[in-house]
Amino acid sequence: MATICPTVLAADEKTYAAEMTDIAHFAHRIQIDLTDGVFAASPTVKPAEAWWPAAVKADFHLMYKFPTDAAKVVLKHQPNMIIIHAEAEGDFKPLADFCHKQNVKVGVALLPLTKPEVISKSLDLIDHVMIFSGDLGSYGGHADLALLDKIEFLKKQKADLEIGWDGGVNDQNVSQLIFGGVDVINVGGFIQQAANPGQAYEALQLIADETGTT
Questions:
Q1: Domain 3-212 falls in which CATH fold?
Q2: Model pTM greater than 0.85?
């Protein structure tokens, strides 16, 4: 079954607390988006300011040009996973090894123009690949379903690889994403900007559950 994973993307601590509070009572797994103001220009809270409810799995999507320092701050609080970008700089293997030693999963995000072949040699260190189809540092974006083609290559290389998607998810395309092979569907604006975030989440998860049984 695919998992609907609400995201939190907030420029300040007050907004962060409001968004987290909105989803905390129904989400089982969340994604927290952090930016460095360089790789993604829009500001967010700092890694040290991020928090989440104890009963919820938290994945951190680090939109950082140099993600190592931010990852080490987040790792102190034992998230479920750290996701860095294939387009980021720095030595990937030491960071991946450090995460795994802390029993934290490692994910890699691919921007639309990045081919999955660039990470093929590192897939033994990667637990999750996120197909990114959004706008860095902002809610919304366009779900370019042509990017689902990346999944076939990745699954041939590593059959048990978890696949995520970020960008433009709504109730009209979520079933297509699942049929395309996505396991974790990160949802920002459709939930956070809804009049009733809980109902928006439930609508997507219902579609996901029904899709998974067909």
A1: TIM Barrel (3.20.20)
A2: yes
